[in-house]
């Protein structure tokens, strides 16, 4: 904690100094000097729409944790005119998004957001959002390097027969759903199941605001605040239909209660805090260097960012802790004489959470491009379940080849289609002293991207790892 506080003390003046320096310059010269690499190329610029446009997208999302779901996302864009000062640099002038979404697994996600690059033709950008997330199938496999171990299960989920390591998540999940007798004197019913062992319910309401300020052509100073109220409920003693281990597995028997979950076991052993959730009020500051030519779907450029977050009881939070996050993304067109549109994309990231961080926030990471959790799931190591690996020190990365192989124009609607093979890697550590090059988890797969009017990205990915095969349907690139 003291180490992170010292970093905050040192970096905060550095972050705010350019703001005061360039505020005076802007009084003399209204135009912001921007890096030339951020400018759209002539072909992309020709397809960029002027003025307002609206799209409402039916959501048909699928992933193994959230289930199959549907809803609607509505986006209102305003691009301005081609003669506007920063038309060739902005993805849009204003974007208002709202979403209503739910799945067959009980997941619900509602939000409304606003994004304003170069607000009022100044160097400022403001983002704000209000959202509610409810996930009764949030995943928990432990915290730290122990979570890197292979899944273990008992033969047909029966106590007294030892354990073996299972490399396949579906086999593990099926075994956990089998009925078993009590494993200890503390279990009072005659039969139990363990199908809720790695699950809990996460109910979160979040208000978010951030301001960034562009200086020296491509640098950004960032300040952000997030107020989050989290309620956690546990799968223990919840009743579910369960299979008889001795009969045909297709026969569902009478519902039986779940045993204690992994989350409850770790709480009782003093390994985690935040068992019931709580208030988390974040204050962030950071720096970024960003030369990407078009944020939603870059052809070229680099993003390097570092931010520090502080959560304190003095500001109404339930906890005291700090978080550090570093990330770099790089995009480059390769073999342009052979492939007109073939982009190499890579990402490398690391996160640190101090002692005192609740288990549900250790997994949480924030970037200038938006928040995400990991490791595992759509935005990190895609072949593993969401939050499969969680630790105070996290390192991960990805490689993608994005080949735009076709375009289609229907009326005033423009679509681009890309094939995206990818490779992900990452791991967690209990301490920065343990960081090394061994023990990483890997996944790989193939994706399809449908880019609608340049700023809306539809993602379809199939990912595979040693443990699982997953399919994702969502919006925006994985990174």
From TrEMBL:
<dbReference type="InterPro" id="IPR046024">
    <property type="entry name" value="DUF5982"/>
</dbReference>
<dbReference type="GO" id="GO:0046819">
    <property type="term" value="P:protein secretion by the type V secretion system"/>
</dbReference>
<protein>
    <submittedName>
        <fullName>Uncharacterized protein</fullName>
    </submittedName>
</protein>
<dbReference type="Pfam" id="PF01103">
    <property type="entry name" value="Omp85"/>
</dbReference>
<dbReference type="GO" id="GO:0008320">
    <property type="term" value="F:protein transmembrane transporter activity"/>
</dbReference>
<feature type="domain" description="Bacterial surface antigen (D15)">
    <location>
        <begin position="193"/>
        <end position="454"/>
    </location>
</feature>
<dbReference type="Pfam" id="PF19412">
    <property type="entry name" value="DUF5982"/>
</dbReference>
<dbReference type="InterPro" id="IPR051544">
    <property type="entry name" value="TPS_OM_transporter"/>
</dbReference>
<dbReference type="GO" id="GO:0019867">
    <property type="term" value="C:outer membrane"/>
</dbReference>
<dbReference type="GO" id="GO:0098046">
    <property type="term" value="C:type V protein secretion system complex"/>
</dbReference>
<dbReference type="InterPro" id="IPR000184">
    <property type="entry name" value="Bac_surfAg_D15"/>
</dbReference>
<feature type="domain" description="DUF5982">
    <location>
        <begin position="31"/>
        <end position="93"/>
    </location>
</feature>
<keyword id="KW-0472">Membrane</keyword>
